[in-house]
Amino acid sequence: MNFLQNIFERLSGAPGRLLIEEMRPGGRVSVTAGELLERIATARAFLAAAGLRKGDRCALLAPNSIHWVAVDLAAMADGIMVVPLYTRQAPAELAAMMSDAQPAIIVCGDSTLQRDLLAAMPGAAPRTMLLEEIFTARPPAAVREQPIHLADGDPIAIAYTSGSSGEPKGVVLNVGNVTYMLSCTTARLGQLMGERTEPDRVFHYLPFCFAGSWILLLSCLLRLSELRLSTDLTRLADDLREAAPDYCLNVPQLLERMRSAVETQLAKRGGLANKIFANAKAASLEGKNGARRGISSLVAKKLLFPAIRKKLGPNLKALICGSAPLALETQLFFQMLGIPVLQVYGLTETTAICTMDDPRRVEPGAVGPAIPGIEMKLGDRDEILVRGPNIFSGYWNRPQETTKAMANGWFHTGDQGERTPGGNWRIVGRVKNLLVLSSGHNVAPEPLEETLVRAIPAAQQVVLFGHGRSFLSALVTGEVKRDAVETAIAKLNSALPHYRQIRAFHIEQRPLTVESGLLTTMGKLRRDAIAAQFRDAVESMYHKNPT
User: pTM to 2 decimals?
Assistant: First the structure.
């Protein structure tokens, strides 16, 4: 039984179970499993009436919603490939993806998205319509209640990569990829939650168009979890408390903000509570003991940490984190509070996941072991290579790119990694980002950039340069003061060998953004574009400091 058959069977077996709830500022909108099946049937009837058949493409450009889920499942149930798109992507980039995927229909979340996309598409555009229109049409005639027969090799989704360099590529995922991955994720969530009769309570805010977010959605449907969707990012903290979830999927940026908010509030309060917290943090994060700090840790665990956990989410059993490296200090911070952070590593091409932390054996700073049935090893320049049933079937319309990525039967991730003595994996950086100084020394920029961003509170991003140069330099964005940058760099340099020290920096008040084309949709640096835009500033740093 493939994952779609399994999901439909699970929904049919519990029609009255609350399944998804949208947390809107004006109130909540929810559906039961039976009601979701009805909406899926409506969407299937609409797509069939529109002439879509197995192998056609349906682009979905809309924020998370119950209707998004219904259209996604409806299309896949009939073998139609879903092309999920990010609503914050630049219209020109979306138009390029549509030119590549050639969908039969584009479903948009609202008229603004529809208008902007059509304006960016040259020539005749595919048929476009609004998501809500699918569900306000005449009720459907009799439709199939179960998915059509699909083989493991049948493609069901084309997920475009964020394109940190070059054009985004369409990653084709098939039935077998997703079926296997969901067997792994549901098993791991079962380990986390243990034996219980109540459904998991899950909070979610990351767009479903991203592979990891989509896999969590499908995992929740399989487990018949209560999935609560945050629809307003300005209310994220309040929604998290109200949802009171058992777990949620996060990106490192949010966890960093949560940590910063807690520390800032305690610092403002001052007094005994802040002293107890500071001593407990030092004992936990820095490994420093002593009678005073030992007592502070005990007091904090009894009186302070429970209050903090209640504000973050009283039922949290874990915070799941992926998409980018998480600072070790942040993982240890939440661990200190009694909330484990479980890391996940993977790419769109690996059906979102290669490794997952085992809840019973978490190693801070690592991203867990390879999931069962997946092989991982290190290649040239410590590049992580992967093979297994989670590997994508190829890039859409790009056979040469597929062959290159799958050299010698292994998928080349482009990530540098290392294995820990405990059998877990640690991600070091991106192979293509490696800076090779004129001295011949190799420097992975990501760890240094992440350390500096955390050390400079007002900094938005830090970007290192130095490839082919005699030393490293840094671009620091945000409303930062020069002395704060100098202090942070001096402290960092004091613990580094000479070739990894940063000798010059440039401050740019305006942060890098997705809209400016300097960040990917996942918030990753588009280094080539950044280097081009700040070419003069970079050259100036090296002219002022020639050695």
Answer: 0.88
